[in-house]
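By way of example, what follows is a protein record of this kind.
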Amino acid sequence: MLVAVVNFIIRLTAVLPLGAVRFIGGLLGALGWLFNSSITKVTRKNIALCFPNMPVKEQAILVRQSMIESGITSL
C-alpha cells in the first residue's frame, strides 16, 4: 500500500509544473510547522543549538522558513 502511494506521488509530481510542485511542497512544510510535527521540534532544537544568541522570535521565523524549504525539497 505504501509503495503504491509513493509511486502515485512520484508520478503526480512528474507531470505537474515546477511551480505547482514547489507550492505543494511549501504547503506541506508549512503544515508540518503549524501542527508542530516531530521534524519541526528537531528543527527548532537544532536552530536553538546552532544560533544560541539569536532572539527567540528570529529563531521561530527561521524554523518556519526551514520547514517550508524542507517540504519543497522533499517533493
Summary: The helical segments are 2-15, 18-34, 38-50, 56-74. The mean pLDDT is 94.
